[in-house]
Amino acid sequence: MSLSFRHLLVPLSAVLLLLSACGGDDPKDPVCGNGIVESGEACDDGNRNEGDRCNNSCQVTTPTVDAGTETDGGVTGDDAGTTTDAGTETDAGTTTDAGTETDAGTTTDAGTETDAGTTTDAGTETDAGTTTDAGTETDAGTTTDAGTETDGGSGPVDAGTETDAGTETDGGSGPVDAGTETDGGTTTDAGTETDAGTETDGGAIDAGPGTDAGTETDAGTETDGGTDAGPAPDAGTETDGGTTDAGTSPVTLTALEPAATFARSGTTGETIPESLEVTLSAPADTAVVVQVTSSSPSITVANNGQVVVPAGARSAAVIVTANAAAGSAKATLTASLGSDSRNATVRVLGETEAASLAFLSPETVEVAPGKTVNLTVTLDVPPATDTIIALSTTGGVGTVPASVTVPANQISAKFALTGGASGSTGTVVATLNGQSVSAQAKVTSEPTTNHIVISEVAAAGAGGANDEFVELYNPTNAEVNIGGWRLQYKSATGATYSGNFVLPTTARIAAHGFFLLGHGSYVGTTTAADANWATTFAMGAAGGHVRVGPANLTTAINDANAVDTLGYGTANSAEGASPVNGTPATGGSYERKAKATSSAATMEGSGVDAAAGNSYDTNVNSADFIIRTTRGPQNKASATE
Fold first, then answer.
1. DSSP string over 403-420
2. Which of 275, 422, 436, 543 is the Cys-Cys partner for 270 at CB 3.0 to 4.6 Å?
3. E strand or H helix that includes residue 519
4. What angle do CA 145, 147, 152 make, to 5 degrees?
């Protein structure tokens, strides 16, 4: 027998002896074994020690307490469930175990069906996964645990940081936890109902980033608070509510005018004859871009159609480039801002396209004798160069200039008709290249004057600065009692009529007759004054006002009781706001016309209107009076006219 075989027999004999001693058939025998007690023995329990896995009948027992007691918690070394254990139901799991026939075998085994590595091991009620283990208040959250069924984190998705680890505010809901001190579902979390973000948002960096802010569920809810809503694509919705937002401008597009304009082919700039413009409802706080599109390539809008209305402005011109060969001769331009849009047309003109007459306006006119009225001649398109149009009249309706010029790129020009003889009817004619257009004209009858008028005034004379008079004329067919009337004077810029002379109570004016009033220094070598105001007032030579009216006439500048007023020179309150211009010579005067066509030549000396009276009154001083070179006062003794 070899030495090695002998070595094997020694331990084998010992085992057989042990088995024979601990496996007695008499269960009534209270003492068994050979009386030898060995450390950690499983039987031969003559020593009566508890916990050595051998009862008093020498039967091997399984302890009821395994690795996983309340004090265990999976700490390596004092449990049976270490990585070197087998952990079967019949195993004791000590560090020196894992090698018996009933065990899992070697320390590298632990993988058989009865071993501790099966799916039924390490998690039984008596093992390291009981309800008292891994997840208790003293465990739950250590770096080696955090993963049992009662933990709430189910392993690596527990987020078992030191500040989290399954607290009451955790909830164990996994990756949406984030277990920081500011988490726990408080109102400061980013993702609660009061957040300003979508379900996928959540966090302190919400409400504002370019990819978030402005979604339908974000930016602008009542609970937002104004820290969001700022990016250009968001900001400014009605549901925003942030004082720092307001991103878009509240203005709207109100017009694209004029409705029809022109552009000459080969040019870039504003349209003609007027500039086409976009107009907003109000000045904007910031620049506003209005998009303008064209229906035809014959008209293109500069800057890719973006028309910028500057901050503080309401309108901006539309700059276009015209190309007659590119498409339709007329393009429709559409301006858009938000939901607002407006249209206008632009016609493309040839580089040398000729213009024709379109019409005269107004089509019918009335004018008083000697008065003027404006007419307008209009072409069909703006001409490329200045265009001269010939003018004429028929029927004696008055006079017009020989021609009028429509400037290049404009479409019309104005001119004046001066009325001819009263009652005349006829036409005004405009002619261009053999083509004519006309308007009907009528000269109205002389105005009927049914009240006393101031007929002639001299503010100075050969006798000096106070050689003054005021002549009155009665154009009616009946005598007028002017006793107690007032003659008043106001300086050119005076606040009231300071001079106030009351006529004698016996004063009368015969039908078509005269009445003469003079200053105390009036020199009437041939015609005496009928009444003398002495030094009640003195008129200014360069400008002033004289008026006449009944006894109830006040000194206020504007008084409806005034019957007639003359303002001359620099006067600021003349009839029609138009004083008689100019200053007479030393011996001259201001005289009312006999009719619309009267002039200084016809009213003086042997002129045709010298004895025709002074009844022309349109309530416009500059139109009603002429300036005489020599004065010709008349009194109540003078012949009627």
1. EEEEPTT--EEEEEEEE-
2. 275
3. strand 514-519
4. 125
pTM for this one?
0.40
CA–CA distance, 468 with 462 (Å, rounded to integer): 10
Q: What letters, b where the CB count within 10 A reaches 16 and e where it falls short, cover 30-54?
A: eebbeeeeeeebbbbbbeeeeebbb
pLDDT tens-digit readout, 364-388: 998 988 889 999 999 999 999 999 9
Percentages helix, strand, coil for the chain (3-state, rounded to 5) are: 5, 25, 70
pLDDT band at 70 (very low <50, low <70, confident <90, very high): very low
Q: How far is CA 131 from CA 137, 377, 454, in A?
A: 11, 106, 125
* Whole-number Å distance between alpha carbons of 293 and 320: 11
Q: What is the largest CA-CA distance in the chain?
A: 190
d(CA 117, CA 93): 13
Tally of CA atoms within 13 A in the half-sphere of 313 that contains its CB: 14
Amino acid at 321: T
* Structural domains present in the chain: 253-349 (2.60.40.3450), 357-443 (2.60.40.10), 453-628 (2.60.40.1260)
Q: How far apart are CA 200 and CA 190, in angstroms?
A: 10
**Count helices and strands in the chain by DSSP H and E runs:** 3, 32
